[in-house]
Amino acid sequence: MQAASGVALPPGGQGSARENRPASAGSSALPEHDEILTLPDDLFGPGAVPQETGRRWPWAVGSLVLLVLVAAQGLFFFGTDLAASMPGVRPALIQGCDWLGCHIALARMPDQLFIEASDMQVLNPARAGEVLFTATIRNRAQVAQELPLLEVTITDALNQTAARKVFYPVQYLDKTQGELTGVAANQEILVKLYLDTGDIKPTGYRLYLFFA
To answer: Where, residue-wise, is CATH 2.70.50.60 in the chain?
Structure first.
């Protein structure tokens, strides 16, 4: 008997050393032509953040510039009111306003200005129209104020208005106080005013403080 060819068969009489079987639905085997993709470790880590941050900085700078402009506009138009309501920050507001080219005026609070005492004297009985008015004005506010205008009303024997006139600080201030630019918080200023009323013989008077 002639011997079979020299090809050895695997046990069990299989006709091929490699058997291809279709993968079942639950099998994890992949076809030979598919490749497994590996993602970089830093794809979702800190390495991905700089691109988003780089897009946000123009908005942050723009918001800061807008905030500065709004603050400067508020100081320019409302600096005096802010200084009156917040005396503690007045020096900073003045410095900022100097930089912007604006001016912070003293407060105007006429309801906090009071005439503590006043008097009218006839200087010469032979000339009853020449009188001297003296008064003390006190600022009861907690901030310095502008010097107010002073209205003097002279009345006759029937308490009717005989004459009325408004005087500026330079006209009514007692010269011994120097050149005042305002009245400080809780400070008193002296009024000394000489008047010649002519033919009017004043028997009474009224004083009124206000701002124009």
So the answer is: 110-210
CATH superfamily, domain 110-210, is abc- transporter (atp binding component) like domain (2.70.50.60)
Instruction: Give the distance from CA 181 to its chain's centroid.
Output: 26
| Beta-sheet pairing, 127-139 with 113-124 | antiparallel
Reported as a single tens digit per residue, the pLDDT across 112-157 is 999 999 999 988 888 888 999 999 999 999 888 999 999 999 998 8
Residues 6+ apart with CB under 8 A from 49: none
| Sheet of 161-167, strands arranged across | 161-167, 149-155, 204-210
The alpha-helical segments, DSSP class H, found in 102-162 are: none
Strand partners, 124: 127
